[in-house]
User: What shape does this take?
Amino acid sequence: RKEVEQDPGPFNVPEGATVAFNCTYSNSASQSFFWYRQDCRKEPKLLMSVYSSGNEDGRFTAQLNRASQYISLLIRDSKLSDSATYLCVVTLNTGGFKTIFGAGTRLFVKA
Amino acid sequence: GAVVSQHPSWVICKSGTSVKIECRSLDFQATTMFWYRQFPKQSLMLMATSNEGSKATYEQGVEKDKFLINHASLTLSTLTVTSAHPEDSSFYICSAREELGQGANYGYTFGSGTRLTVV
Assistant: This one.
């Protein structure tokens, strides 16, 4: 089992739709969680951190479920510009600091 | 926000030559930087963790003698691909660890990446 798993998609949604991605992680000692966005042939950029209490930034909402070991990202009112790959990132410290990237979920928002 | 500068953005080199890639944190100090490699349509794969003033920690399967990492200052880490071969052609990205607020520990600011083509 991969340490961080994401549905690769692609998710094809119309503008204005609400779309949700999940990401599961296998190590219960995982400490911090993030969603990154990566546009084609560009570097990943931090979209948002994921806090235990959940957090919202505009149209984006991130949730963490430690009991089930998954994080989620909800995008409301999708825009064409939201088309990208969304990477789930998990960090843990098990005798050494480690960062694990999910393979990414591809989103296409169409007019 | 934090900015990480990575140079060069692209490079073409002949097989057997060495290529150095620089990663600089411009407005913050980064005791820890990371080097990733990304092949087409794949996710980032961590190659090594670069620690200022000490030896880098390499991931399993990454040859430390081939991918030389130097983190001589708090704002600069370099990756040198020695004796490059066509299979080393890839997108190399660095990131620097930065502190985030609100209880989250760290986030990662990425450089813009270096596209290496070995011919």
Remarks:
- Chain B has a mean pLDDT of 88.
